[in-house]
Write a structure and sequence with these properties.
Layout lengths: L6 E7 L9 E7 L8 E6 L4 E6 L6 E8 L2 E5 L5
Antiparallel strand pairs: 1-2, 2-3, 4-5, 5-6
């Protein structure tokens, strides 16, 4: 039987003003036990609406929506 690799992806989460928990999260979903997902914060960010990794590296790029028409860029590294 062929082993199916775990699914790993990044998620940007919006945060309400004054609340905690927003940022870029790394999610690891074991395909053999999907109920045992691992989620960890890899970068604090204000409303990251676009998240990706740089090709061939562990550097994450995220665009933050901080004000109408204004964006910041976050560059955390995955460890």
């Amino acid at each position: 039987m062929n082993e199916v690799p775990n699914l790993e992806f990044l998620v940007g989460t919006y945060t309400l003003p004054g609340a905690n928990g927003g940022g870029v999260h790394h999610v690891r979903l074991p395909t053999d036990a999907p109920g045992e997902a691992e989620v960890r914060l890899v970068a604090e960010a204000a409303n990251p609406s676009w998240v990706t990794t740089l090709t061939g590296s562990k550097v994450v790029v995220a665009a933050e929506e901080v004000a109408r028409g204004d964006f910041n860029c976050v560059l955390p590294a995955l460890g």
